[in-house]
Amino acid sequence: MEILWVLMALVMLGFVLLQISRRRRGAVGLVEPGHPDAADPANYGFAREEELDIRMPGPDEDLLDVLDLVQRTQDYRGAQQLLAGTEAKGERRWQRVQAFAGAASLELRQRPGGVGETPGGQWLRVWRAEVPKDAGGAAVHAEFLVQQAWRTSTPGSDDFRIIMEEAKAACGEAALLAPGDPIPYIVELSVARGLGYPREEFEQLWLKILDRAPNHMGAHLAALQYWCEKWHGSRELAYSFAEAAAARAPRGSLLAAMPLFAVFEHLPEVNLVSGFYQSEVVTKAVHGALHAVHSADRDDPMQAHVRHLLVFFLIRGERWAEAMNQLMVIDGHVGALPWTLSSDPAAEFAVYRALAVAGYEANGGSPATLPH
Q1: Distance CA 9, CA 6 (A)
Q2: Average pLDDT of the chain to the nearest whole number
C-alpha cells in the first residue's frame, strides 16, 4: 500500500509540474542535462545543486564561521560571543538563535549517545551549566527544546507535550534573564501553537512581542502559523492577521509581504486550475512582496525569506523574467520556505530554478539580457 501511495504522489507531482510549466506558445519542460534543448542554469552563474547551502536562507558568514568552530571544537564560547554582539531586537539575532539551536538538535539526532559515548550538542549543555545567567544560551536552549519536540515527537502525543512544557518553562527563564528581549517570547509562539494556547492567552503573548519589537518579521511569520487553518485558526483569520500587519508596516518594512505567506500557507494540496497563480488574490500578494523587497534595506536578513517565496510564486505564475531577477539575488542558499518543506531542499530548488531558466529562454531571454 505504501508503494502505491508513493507512485500516486509521483504521478501527481509530475502533473503539477506540467501545469506550472505551461506558457502561451507551447510548453516549457525539463529535459535531461546535456540534451540539445536543455537550458543550463550554469550559464547564469548559478551554483551547482550539490553546492547549495541548505542551512541558511541567505549569507551570514559570521554565523557559519562560528557554527563551524563550535561544532569542530565543541566549545560554546564562540556562539555566546556572537549572540552577545548581535542586536537583541533584530531579525539576525533570531535567525542565529534558531541556527545554533538547530545545529545542536541535529547533532543530537546524529549522535544520540550511548554507553561511553558523548551525545551530540553537548556544547549547549555545557553552555547552560557554566553560564546559567547568560540570556543568549537560555534563548538557544528554549529554541532547542522546541525543535526537539517537533523533530522527535508527534504533535498531541504525551512525549510532545512533555517537551513543549519544558520549552515553555525555558522560555520563561530566558525572559527573566533579559526582560526587554523579544526572542524568548518569539520562541514561545511555537510552544503556543504546539500546545494549543487559547486565543486570549496567545494574544497576551503576542502583545508582549509587540511591546518589544512591533515590526519583527520573524515574529509575525511565527505567529501566522497559529492563525492558519491547519492549526488554531482559519484562512480568514490568517489573511486578516497578515493584511493587518502589511497595512501598519512602516516604510521599508518587509511586513508588506505577509499576505504572500498567508496565501502560501493555504494553497490547495493539488491545484488543477492553471490560472490560479495569476488570480487577483495571488497577484496582489506577489505585488506587495515585490514592493517590500524593493523598498527594504538590502542588508535586512529577512529579505532572503521573502525572495525565496517570490521565486516559487513567480515561477508558478509563469513570470519568468521576474523569477530570474530574484534568483540572481538569492541563489546559493536554500534554507527557506518553500524548499525546506521538501526532504531534499536543494533538489526542489534546483527543479524550480531550471524551470525558470527554461521559461526565460523560451521567451527570448538569455544571460546577456538579464540585468546583473
Answers
A1: 5
A2: 88
C-alpha cell at 162: 512533555
Determine the angle formed by the axes of helices 91-110 and 217-227, rounding to 10 degrees.
60
How far CA 207 is from CA of 186, 187, 200, 215, 241, in Å, comes to 11, 14, 11, 12, 14
Beta carbons of 147 and 166 less than 8 angstroms apart: no
State phi, psi for 22 to the nearest 5 degrees. -70, 155
DSSP 250: P
Look up the pTM and report it.
0.87
Query: Does the pLDDT of residue 192 top 80, yes or no?
Result: yes
Closest CA to 349 of 2, 110, 51: 51
Interatomic CA distance for residues 206 and 188, integer angstroms? 10
Cβ–Cβ under 8 Å, residues 71 and 107: yes
Cβ atoms within 10 A of the Cβ of 277, count? Answer: 22
Q: How far is CA 107 from CA 63, 104, 262, 284, in A?
A: 17, 5, 32, 42
